[in-house]
């Protein structure tokens, strides 16, 4: 059986922002990982029992920035609820990281 992260490499579906959805939805950029780095996550995760601080790379990201718990029941709803949009993810991985970091700064 293939590794879980190889079955579901769309890591950018991992964060729900409490900001109204704007812009056009888009396909996640495989290997981006910005949504698993920039925001804080207050929910417990297996490797982050007290949540994850903003700007800290999630320990569940593999070397290719894919979520190792993508289909696991312990993956928080906040992660599975994120839907990438142009407004949130921009046009590059670096732009996504900058946008999400700014949103975290404004809402944190």
Overall structural domain count? 1
Q: Which regions contain 5 or more consecutive residues with pLDDT less than 50?
A: 1-21
- Tell me, briefly, the overall form: globular
Mean pLDDT score, rounded? 80
Total helical segments:
4
Number of strands: 0
The helix content, as a percent range, equals 25-40%
Question: Can you walk through the features of this model?
Answer:
With 108 residues, this protein is an all-alpha fold. It has one domain. Helix content is 25%, strand content 0%. The chain has 4 helices and no strands. The radius of gyration is 13 Å and the shape is globular. The N and C termini lie far apart (40 Å).
Describe what is shown at a glance:
This protein is mainly α. The chain contains four helices and no strands. The protein has one domain.
Question: What's the arrangement of secondary structure elements?
Answer:
Layout: H1 4-7, H2 77-80, H3 86-89, H4 93-107
Essential attributes:
single chain; 4 helices; globular; disordered N terminus
């Amino acid at each position: 059986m293939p590794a879980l992260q190889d079955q579901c490499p769309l890591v950018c579906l991992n964060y729900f922002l409490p900001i109204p959805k704007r812009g056009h939805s888009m396909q996640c950029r495989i290997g981006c990982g910005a949504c698993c780095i920039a925001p804080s996550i207050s929910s417990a995760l297996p490797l982050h029992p007290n949540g994850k601080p903003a700007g800290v790379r999630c320990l569940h990201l593999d070397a290719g920035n894919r979520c190792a718990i993508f289909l696991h029941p312990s993956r928080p709803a906040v992660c599975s609820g994120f839907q990438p949009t142009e407004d949130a993810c921009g046009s590059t991985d670096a732009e996504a990281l900058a946008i999400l970091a700014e949103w975290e700064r404004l809402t944190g």
